[in-house]
Amino acid sequence: xxxxxxxxxxxxxxxxxxxxxxxxxxxxxxxxxxxxxxxxxxxxxxxxxxxxxxxxxxxxxxxxxxxxxxxxxxxxxxxxxxxxxxxxxxxxxxxxxxxxxxxxxxxxxxxxxxxxxxxxxxxxxxxxxxxxxxxxxxxxxxxxxxxxxxxxxxxx
Length: 156
Fold this sequence. Notes:
By secondary structure, the protein is α+β, with helices and mostly antiparallel strands. The chain has 2 helices and 10 strands; from the N terminus they run ββββαβββββαβ.
């Protein structure tokens, strides 16, 4: 069993920035919607907790990524068993408008007009995706989301 850790480090006006770790090493950054006490569909960060990862091999997003990355795509990495959430994926995107309640990844980030934006998302996604495929081929992999520390408008 392996665990990928998503450590939230900052909250913007509509976005939440995190660091993503595998085996204690920072591998990329993550971006989600705003952390909210009450869920708003496609506009709320994933609740803290530990969730299994699995491949989802159906649906429009799977078809798009299969066409875009035919040599590596095995299915969308889905974060499963989140209460009151469904079809939550790890995918490419740059700002909170791209999240739809999912976890975006990037190699870098900037704070732009009060919200976090990711940079080099495709590069980070392919690197993380290949690692997850290798891990998931041999064991159960979980995603742990932590909100340790103070999160408020870009100040941790």
